[in-house]
Design goal:
nine-stranded antiparallel beta sheet; 3 helices; 9 strands; elongated; MAS3 protein; Egh16-like
């Protein structure tokens, strides 16, 4: 199956699972631990079929326990379960902070500081049935504003590989810690102030030249 950027189900299954590589867990500072998706040698072998059904087992937990929350620096940690050889990394990550996963144009590229190993070609590696930790950081200045199934301030993170028959991966829903949101707002304010200062300085130079 291929990854689709459709919105998460109303029951708040925190993961949209697809393919030969699957995001199976999301760890947050607050709220519920979500089922979902660097240092690439930290894989853990798992019995075949152990994690491929993790989403079904956790469907609806977000509604009861709350969404996972980012760390104060805006990062989230997930577990990516590689099912077979073309479900490997490296992964790419994008985050939608506004549309709840419904608009492809809303996804912005995000940094992956800890990734899944792979040959770098078509999502291939020699590993299979392994769990790998992945860490994704929100872009600077991003604030979670999405609305999903009655919940506010939702971000959707999408992770996928470059498999020819894919891409394979998944998506997770999360929200921001208060400190992370404060940092993002302050970043945007500083950026706006600097832009105004540069514009004012440029205007002054033009006047001086005249």
């Amino acid at each position: 199956m291929r990854y689709s950027s459709a919105a998460l189900a109303a029951a708040f299954a925190a993961t949209n699972v697809l393919g030969h590589g699957v995001v199976t867990e999301l760890f947050g500072l607050g709220g519920g631990g979500g089922a979902g998706a660097g240092k690439a040698s930290a894989g853990v072998a798992t019995p075949k079929g152990t994690n491929e059904t993790a989403v079904l087992a956790t469907t609806g937990m977000g509604a009861a326990q709350g969404l996972p929350t980012s760390s104060d620096d805006g990062s989230i940690k997930v577990v990516f379960h590689q099912v077979n050889q073309d479900g490997a990394g490296p992964l790419t990550a994008d985050i939608d902070a506004t549309s709840g996963g419904t608009e492809a144009s809303a996804f912005q590229k995000a940094e992956i500081s800890q990734n899944v190993p792979g040959l770098g070609i078509a999502g291939l590696s020699g590993a299979q049935t392994m769990d790998f930790p992945v860490e994704v950081k929100m872009p600077a200045g991003m604030t979670c504003q999405g609305q999903v199934a009655g919940a506010s301030n939702v971000c959707i993170a999408r992770l996928r590989n470059a498999a020819v028959t894919g891409p394979f991966g998944g998506s997770v829903a999360f929200t921001q810690s208060p400190a992370a949101k404060k940092r993002a707002i302050e970043y945007n304010l500083c950026k706006r102030m600097l832009s105004r200062r540069f514009a004012a300085a440029a205007a002054q130079e033009d006047e001086d030249d005249e």
